[in-house]
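Figure S4 source data
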Amino acid sequence: MKICLRLLLVLPLTLSPAIAQQPNDYDYFQANRTMIRNGAQAVLICNGLFTSNRTLPQIFNQELAILADPIGSTRGGDYIVDPERQAVAVGGGGSGPVMRAAFREGIGCVIMSPDQDFDDIDSLPTQKMPYPDMDPATTPWPNGDLVEEKKLPSEINARALDTASEWAFDRPNPEQDTLSLMVIYKGDIILERYADGVDMNTRTRTWSTAKSITATLIGMLVDEGRMSLDEPLGLDWLPAVRNPETDPRKTITLRHALNMSSGLHPVDGNGPSMYAATGSGLAYWAGASSNEGARRRGLIREPGTYWDYENYDTLLPVAAMKKTLGDYKTYAEFPRKRLLDKIGMRNTLVSTDRFGDFILSSQIYTNARDLARIGLLYQQGGVWDGERLLSEDWIEFVTTPAPASAPNGNNYGGQFWLVPDDRNDVPKSAYSTSGNRGQYVIVVPTHDTVIVRRGLDYGGQGFDRWSLTHEILKAIPETGH
């Protein structure tokens, strides 16, 4: 036994240098990546067909352009479209596991788990709330879609506005694919333009512009005193520790999460979540629980000290919102009742995972006009039709730089992006939503202006929203606000 013990002590010292020299190049998560790739394509095709009402050629040419290796083509491949069930399956054969997504009323397409099939569709959540009794076509903007023909205000430079429009659509980089552009000045639409194959009713994914809508909903609860910026989130963290009261994650506040400085282990910040094999990609594209994933991370930094852009940091306040609202029906109806229905956002679907939890970090499908309404709510100081929906204090919070964003040029607030310190060609008070593939709602208080740009950018992308703002403001004078 003594000899064996000596061998056990010596062998690690002898072998560890050789082990250390072995390259760690094996992809242990390749199975996850394949599953996520197939799930992403299933969701994008499903929403493209049944939420956006686009054609399969449009989807392959634009929606799927973001995928490095989409499966099949418009002529067919390892995917199935079931129009009757409004569902899509991608994979099989040599293309990896079959992943399925199905359209659900009021929600959009929900990704299913790998062990579910089309027979499980009826178990997925729906949202069957009736809409307010009004006809958008006969209701004046901004509550409806009836836009009165007006002359362009005399102070607006029409030529400069046209030039800005051309700047947005006629890009030298084909990867920058503008779908729509809107400019709202003093509440009126002064520019609205759509690419071929897109119109005012076309719904596309907001990606992370959804985070700013999340902040709006959370702000309403903070304004009511039902949530607090500087109190702990009050979540049940996973994995549960033996003594939850000593869990260091209990110190994470709502402010930390909204400022993207929770201190939790990063799972998305080092690369696109679409291809992340262990982070939010599992919830977005593979049927995992978005709520559980957000809570299943360890603390590696003191909260509030380090800025790290994480989808799950947004889903933490969503989990806290669910807990605050109490019952599922109240939670499920909250976005519609408290925000969307009040400001005329009838084209907006807030999607969930298969467990019924809102994926409010990314998966909202909407059109340009509905996003303009969100911007207009902020431009009007949180007031809509004389009713205060959001406090000025909350708007100040979301537009104040997160302390931990200072190394990045103070460019991030509370789920909104701010003009960075080194940018001097646009007003410093401007702020913006920002979503993958070029989804922007830009609010410019000094010019009483809201700008909406929707895109299906891909590849390197790099559409510059602040340069777009600069171009548009050449046409619009300051209003003194």
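Figure S5 source data
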Amino acid sequence: MRKRLNLLFQRMGVAAQAIGVGSLFFLHFTDADITDYRVSRTANGERLREAFLTLMREGIFFSERGMGCISTPMSEREIDRFVKAMEKVLRK
């Protein structure tokens, strides 16, 4: 998920990144290296809120603070759906 989202951000020229570990991911609308909490607070919060609302309209539950996770029952189908919905977010 993180890799696909980061490729999408890069392809669309959007200052954003998906970081995390294991099944967890966190979106930051910034191109700054996220090294600590202070840096993460410099991200574009309004863009994150737009992403949250658009994803919810697409039927995808996503944390308002930008955190998500992949669970065992999820497949490439769910990841594809999330990435396509994120592309809608970025086109707005």
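The radius of gyration is 12 Å. Residues 78 and 85 are 11 Å apart (CA to CA).
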